[in-house]
């Protein structure tokens, strides 16, 4: 069996999705323009779906490709895994900013009620002013 039939599960799911779309398309004997015509999208969309260095393709195009290539939901599942992995990585890499993480003592941190310039704060009844 070739490496194509046993994908490397240590690769990001988005990379596996792009490779699987290309593998299934070539296995079906279709060019990008032929697949695009079959699913009702442009060749550029198909090309982007096969490129791992771009954003994830939309769920709609993945579903269309999945149906056209008789993947029986395999591509949709990979797309869902890719999206979950992407969201998890974003959560892990985004620092959680709190009042204390930016150096303000808790007693000086007050929530803003409105997104107004400071000069207009005093014109709002009951609104306090920072010292």
Structure explained in plain terms:
The chain has 131 residues and is an all-alpha fold. The protein has a domain at 3-90: 434 Repressor (Amino-terminal Domain) (Orthogonal Bundle). Helices cover 46% and strands 0% of the residues. It is built from 5 helices and no strands. Helix 1 packs antiparallel against helix 5 (74-93), helix 2 crosses helix 3 (43-49) and helix 4 (59-68) packs antiparallel against helix 5 (74-93). The longest helix has 20 residues, at 74-93. The relative contact order is 0.11.
Features:
5 helices, 131 residues, single chain, 434 Repressor (Amino-terminal Domain), HTH cro/C1-type domain-containing protein, Cro/C1-type_HTH, mainly alpha, Lambda_DNA-bd_dom_sf
Computed CA radius of gyration, to the nearest angstrom: 24 Å
- Strand tally, please? 0
Elements, N to C (H/E): HHHHH
Q: Could you give a short account of the major beta sheet?
A: none
Distance between the termini: 71 Å
- Uncertain stretches: none
Q: State the helical fraction.
A: 40-55%
CATH superfamily assignment of the domain at 3-90? lambda repressor-like DNA-binding domains
InterPro entries: Cro/C1-type_HTH, Lambda_DNA-bd_dom_sf
Protein name: HTH cro/C1-type domain-containing protein
Biased composition (Basic and acidic residues): 80-93
Domain HTH cro/C1-type: 21-76
């Amino acid at each position: 069996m070739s490496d194509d039939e046993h994908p490397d599960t240590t690769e990001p799911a988005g990379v596996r999705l792009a490779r699987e779309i290309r593998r299934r398309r070539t296995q079906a004997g279709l060019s990008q323009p032929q697949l695009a015509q079959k699913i009702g999208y442009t060749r550029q969309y198909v090309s982007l779906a096969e490129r791992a260095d771009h954003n994830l393709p939309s769920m709609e195009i993945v579903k269309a490709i999945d149906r056209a290539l008789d993947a029986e939901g395999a591509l949709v599942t990979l797309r869902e895994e890719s999206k979950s992995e992407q969201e998890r990585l974003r959560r892990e890499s985004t620092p959680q900013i709190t009042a204390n993480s930016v150096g303000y003592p808790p007693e000086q941190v007050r929530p803003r009620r409105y997104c107004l310039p400071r000069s207009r704060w005093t014109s709002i009844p009951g609104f306090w002013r920072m010292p």
